[in-house]
Amino acid sequence: MAVALLSVAFREQLARLLSTRPRLLAAASKTIEAAAGVILLAVSVHENVFT
To answer: How many domains does the chain have?
Structure first.
């Protein structure tokens, strides 16, 4: 029960944050995409160099 309540509260806070700060979402999204790209590139280089 407590997990469900915390989940709902977190969702509400996240929705409020995203509605008041859309540029924050855009910046966070770009940062996550860039980090994922760097990780994929590192894995690719590792696989090609060390195998």
So the answer is: 1
Q: Is residue 14 part of a domain?
A: no
Q: Is residue 12 part of a domain?
A: no
The string of pLDDT tens digits covering residues 1-51 is 789 999 999 999 988 988 899 898 889 899 999 999 999 999 999 999 987
Rg (CA), the chain: 18
3-state secondary structure 1-51: CHHHHHHHHHHHHHHHHHHHCHHHHHHHHHHHHHHHHHHHHHHHHHHHHCC
